[in-house]
Amino acid sequence: MAQDTISSTISSVLTSVADLLTTIAPTVPTVPMAAAQITSTKDSPLPPLTNSTTPEEKAAESHYHFLSGPSAQGVCGALTFLSLLITCFQIYKHLRFYNNPNEQRWIVRILFMIPIYALDSWISLLFIDKEGYYVYFNTVRDCYEAFVIYSFLCLCHEYIGGESNIMAEIRGKPIKSSWAAGTCCLKGKSYTIGFLRFCKQATLQFCVVKPVMAIVTVILQAFKKYSDGNWSPTMGYLYITLIYNFSISLALYALFMFYTATHDLLRPYKPLLKFVIVKSVIFLSFWQGVILAILEKAGVISGFTGMDNNKVGPGTVSAGYQNFLICIEMFFASIALRFAFPYDIYTQGPSGGTSVPPNRTELNPTEPTHRHFILGMQSNNGSAV
Length: 385
Prior knowledge:
Layout: H1 2-24, H2 31-43, H3 55-67, H4 70-96, H5 101-111, H6 113-126, H7 133-160, H8 163-170, H9 193-222, H10 236-266, H11 271-297, E1 304-305, E2 311-312, H12 314-340, H13 371-378
Antiparallel strand pairs: 1-2
Helix pairs in contact: 3-12, 4-5, 4-6, 4-12, 5-7, 6-7, 6-12, 7-9, 9-10, 10-11, 11-12
């Protein structure tokens, strides 16, 4: 009896399951149908992931995926870390042997350019998928550019002993007319206080224009009136680029004129490498961005549209390449700055005092251009000159 009961129960359960399968059968494909669907999928091409149709858009899409991918961002992250390691060690050494504060304070401020540039560019690259975010990050970099130019000019004046000492050395000397030096229009003229102040004011105007234009860029970006590479007269990029180009060219010319006038006085400090590196990092990075914008205008760099109709502008792609290149360049700049601003020459003398570094002992200590060193040697209280 028990066996008959169990058998009837199992039979009823199986019947119920069969009825259930019969009910849902129309909505579930059979195995042969699924296999047929898989076969047809393999035979037919996969649907595109974006709405890009032209070769330019497809190329822009591949560039974007490269910049937003782990390879580009990983390389930039590694180079940024190495740049920070090299520069921060150099900054630490300058602070460890802080024996000439009047000079080293400006050197440290210049060296901070590498961490700020590298970190800013790397973070901008990490947020490349956020349209326009890089504009806000780059504002920090732009403002520090102006501070670096100011610090470099102050360092040059400090090397020589100030404006009065410079004029005591160059006043009345004829200006050599040279097309290569940009002094062809100054034939027959001599160095005056007006010439020196022109070099100073023409350089420092960039320190005002740069942060002001950075703030204007942020405001225009908020009102959708700014886009990198958009040369339309109704957008702000055209006018900001023109103002930047005039300001940066004037500052570069003034710095070069200052160098030609004082290179004999600055020779003990090996100024050429310092001038080249600082000007390359700041000025060439700007023109590098302009070249990318021109390539964008020429159609070499373009935007594309994703499947969700999310448009990635060409300015985002070109800005991504700009940040990618800056991360690489900052690594080499950190190495170059290690030789341009060595800390070894400041390791002599008692800690906290001011002493003449070894490479300057051959100079005549009575020359007015090095009067700050004489005062430093006469100071016994360890205070900064």
